[in-house]
Amino acid sequence: MEETPAPRAQWLRGVLDMCLLALMSEGPVYGYEMTVRLARAGLDVADGSIYPALARLRKRELVEIERRSGDGGPARTYYSPSPAGLRMLRSWSHDWSAFAAGIGSLIDPSAREES
What we know:
Elements: H1 8-24, E1 29-30, H2 31-40, H3 47-59, E2 63-68, E3 76-81, H4 83-107, H5 109-114
Antiparallel strand pairs: 1-3, 2-3
């Protein structure tokens, strides 16, 4: 049987909104900065994925935006979680922890034996 690489891109697509809200919860952040910070965390996301996700979050009223003039460049849009976004992040984080623990128990036999 041929080995296939882990489907990281699919996994990330499923949790991108949560990751973006988590980044924003640390302070206002603009789109490209989120891409850089995700990459530093080992999560390579194209700009083309970030902006549709931000638009989705904005449409759901989970983020607030603020336009700030750039240092000699164009104005940037900074994103922060709205109060509803912070509530959603807490909920998603709780769900993610339970989900990850369940997956971990399936793929790590020693974790099953210790339970």
